[in-house]
Design brief:
133 residues, mainly alpha, Non-ribosomal Peptide Synthetase Peptidyl Carrier Protein, Chain A, 42% helix
Amino acid sequence: MLAGSVAWDRCAAGPNVGGMTHTPPATGTESVALLVTELVRLVAPRKSGLVEPDQRLVGDLGFHSLVLAELGYNLEELFSLQELSPEVAMTLERVGDVTRLIVTEVAEGRGTLPDADAVSAVFTRFGADGPAL
């Protein structure tokens, strides 16, 4: 092996660089899921230590129309999304629905993954640091 090259070990942790295991950065889907989950947790009226993809925004986390609008505004800004139509917004029942929509929008070029400054700007509004990606 050439000096400085990276050897992929057969483990889930990532490549072995100079004898140290390196965890690769999160994929786009993982980044979106992490950002959506953390933003939902911060905005949710009914605070939950852990937000899961199958939790219902309205039923489980206490969202109502104003909080849903706040979440939508922040997600649109964070991921540079176009404003969602009311028809699309009405289909977003669970946290996982929101994540899937944003993954699709980003994959199809109608949104972008945010950089560290954009994450910081949105999460600072809630007095929180953005998640490490």
